[in-house]
Design goal:
It comes from Paraburkholderia antibiotica. By secondary structure, the chain is of the alpha/beta class. It contains 15 helices and 13 strands. Strands 3-2-1-4-5-6-7 form a 7-stranded parallel sheet. Strands 10-9-8-11-12-13 form a 6-stranded parallel sheet, sandwiched between helices.
Length: 375
């Protein structure tokens, strides 16, 4: 069989791992799908680097996404893309002896994670840090380029390049197929339910500015707001005196129009609880959450400058502009909901695994990788 045999690492934590606690497993599957479309690729497998057994309980089709252990994969690869699970020095040496190219695929905000780990004494790697300096290439998704490029390049002693962001509705479609209307946005009369679904685990995506946007909307149009729902916030709403004090300054909280909830699966919470989503990010101007919301036709009010053509965009930290966008969605979204959804899906097509330009770019990246001397 002609073409490259490619492995993409994942790090399973349990045999029936969910796809909705973070995007890393989805990222591996989406990349695998894109690479399978490349004319210079023969096969793609997901390679688990942990001791967790691979069973039929995994939430993806193992015919479509073959999933194997590192030991099973190590003698049948031309390229290993390290994405969701790290290979150690011994494993790296074995691959190099076989002539395998090793790529670091960076889709996390590692500089910010490192900074917070150091400054806030959050144990991450302790004294056992292994920085692999034998990568043949570093591929970064565009949204991590600005904040983490130099962090990657200096420590890993290799130049990095931005590569296309890949997303697919495959898992979203599977999750919503049994929901009413397949979880697609449905116009609803009356006051609107505003939702904020930031993870609230670091400074990158935090719920405070979205809450301030909702507050401004409530001050201007109190009868238009049924409820503000902030997910992933039950812990800070109980335990952070600072957060409690800040929230108690807001009319929307004082008037019992806000609730602070735990974790929820995005597609289900959208379908059952949401009319408008409000978001804010620092150095994370493109992510799966935005694409999930917009693909399903929900109005997304956001400040992500890499996808200004999606949803209702406001600039930077301008919460007044954000509030105006929420009011715009309240007043006009339902009148063109179907048109909006189709427009969003057309714009998102550039990220799909079968997009012609995206596939051509990855094929060229692989050609360049193989042409490089083995490191």
């Amino acid at each position: 069989m002609n073409g490259l045999r490619i492995g993409i690492t994942i790090g399973l934590h349990q045999p029936n791992e969910t796809l909705w606690n973070n995007g890393i497993k989805q990222n591996a599957a989406f990349l695998a799908d894109a690479l399978r479309h490349c004319p210079n690729v023969a096969s793609v497998a997901l390679v688990n680097t942990t001791a967790v057994p691979i069973t039929p309980a995994l939430p993806w089709d193992q015919t479509r996404f073959p999933t194997i252990t590192f030991d099973a994969a190590k003698d049948a690869l031309d390229v290993l893309i390290e994405l969701g699970g790290q290979v150690n020095a011994v494993q790296t040496d074995y691959l190099k002896q076989r002539g395998v190219r090793l790529v670091s695929y960076c889709c996390g905000f590692e500089y910010i994670h490192a900074m917070e780990s150091v400054l806030f004494r959050k144990p991450t790697w302790g004294e056992n840090l292994f920085v692999n300096q034998r990568y043949d290439d570093i591929w970064m998704i565009p949204q991590v380029d600005h904040i983490s490029r130099s962090y990657f390049e200096v420590l890993r002693r290799q130049t990095a390049r931005a590569v296309p962001f890949v997303w697919s509705p495959m898992f979203l479609d599977e999750r919503v197929k049994h929901l009413a209307n397949a979880g697609v946005y449905q116009p609803r009369s009356g006051a609107k339910r505003l939702s904020v679904m930031e993870p609230n685990i670091n400074v990158v995506k935090f719920c405070l500015y979205p809450a301030l946007i909702a507050e401004l909307v409530y001050r201007q149009r109190p009868d238009s707001v049924a409820l503000l729902q902030v997910t992933n916030a039950d812990g800070i709403a109980r335990e952070s005196k600072e957060f409690i004090a800040l929230m108690n300054q807001l009319d929307i909280v004082r008037n019992h129009k806000a609730v602070f909830l735990g974790r929820h699966e995005t597609p289900v919470f959208l379908a059952e609880n949401t009319d408008i989503v409000i978001s804010h990010q620092l150095e994370n101007p493109l992510n799966y959450f935005y694409l999930e919301v917009c693909w399903q036709g929900y109005p997304l009010v956001h400040n992500a400058h890499l996808c200004t053509d999606l949803g209702y965009y406001y600039r930077g930290n301008d919460v007044e502009e954000g509030a105006r966008k929420v009011v715009e969605a309240i007043e006009s979204h339902d009148a063109h909901a179907s048109w909006y959804r189709e427009k969003q899906r057309a714009a998102i097509a550039r990220y799909l695994p079968d997009d012609r330009q995206l596939v051509a770019t990855y094929a060229a990246l692989l050609d360049d990788l193989i042409a490089r001397p083995l490191r």
